[in-house]
Amino acid sequence: MTSDHRPSARAADVSNPFVTKTVTASPSKLRSGEYDSLAGLREGMSRLNVVDHSGEFAMPEKAKDNKSSRDLDRFVPSRPSSLHHSSLSSTTLSAEDISTDTSFADKSTSSALSASMGLPQPNRRILSFRAAPPPASHATSHLDAQRNYLLHSSASTNRGTTTTGPGAATKKRSPPYLPERVLDAPGFVDDYYLSLVDWSSSNRVAIGLGSVPYVWDAETGNVMALGEETEESSTVCSVSWSSDGAYLAVGNENGEVEIWDVEESKRMRVMAGHNARVPTLSWFGHILSSGCRDGSIFHHDVRVAQHKVMELRGHAAEVCGLKWRPDGQLLASGGNDNVVNCWDSRVGQSVLNADGQTRVVPKWTKRNHTAAVKALAWCPWQTNLLATGGGSQDQHIHFWSTTTGARTSSLAAGSQVTSLIWSPHSKELLSTHGFPDHNISLWSYPSLQKIYDVPAHDNRVLASALSPDGCTVATGAGDENLKFWKIWEPKTVKKTVDDSDRDARGQSRGRIR
Amino acid sequence: MATKQATRTNQAITIKGSVAIVTEFFEYSVNSILYQRGVYPSDDFRMVKKYGLPMLVTSDDSLKEYIQTILAQVQEWLMSSHLTRLVLAIKSVETDETLERWQFDIHTEDGPSSAGALPGAPKPAAKKKNKTEKEVQAEIQGIMKQITSSVTFLPILDEECTFTILAYTDDAPDTAIPSTWDDADPHLIDRGKVEQVRLRSFTTNVHSLEAMVAYRVGE
Question: Which residues does the UniProt record annotate as the domain HORMA (chain B) (predicted)?
Answer without folding.
Answer: 16-213
